[in-house]
Automatic annotation (TrEMBL):
Gene3D superfamilies: DNA Methylphosphotriester Repair Domain
Pfam families documented for this protein: Ada_Zn_binding
Cross-referenced InterPro entries: Ada-like_dom_sf, Ada_DNA_repair_Zn-bd
Record keywords: Activator
Coiled coil: none
Signal peptide: none
Residues of the Ada DNA repair metal-binding domain: 32-77
Protein name listed in UniProt: Metal-binding protein
């Protein structure tokens, strides 16, 4: 898991480092730290969050292992599966 705020000292540095990690395939999903939600990098909900609250994941297993749940907007099938599993507990 990468914390967006730790990828550089300013917005320009963070942007360069984030794009590099995405191109190399290390970052594939984004997350909202406060609500512990993860989703696609292209999700409109994720693009609105503050840098201090944004985290990145390499894959879905990493996000789930960190205790995050799928976004209902950009990952509706994964969200339904997660929600059904929560109802069983």
């Amino acid at each position: 898991m990468w914390y967006h705020k730790d990828l550089g000292r300013n917005a320009a540095e963070r942007g360069v480092q984030t794009r590099l990690l995405i191109r190399k395939g290390y970052i594939r999903l984004g997350g909202y730290q406060k609500a512990r939600i993860y989703g696609l990098l292209s999700c409109s909900s994720g693009k609105k969050m503050k840098v201090a609250n944004r985290v990145f994941f390499g894959d879905e297993a990493e996000a789930l292992a960190a205790g995050y749940r799928p976004c209902g907007r950009c990952l509706p099938e994964q969200y339904k599966t997660w929600k059904a599993a929560q109802a069983m507990q």
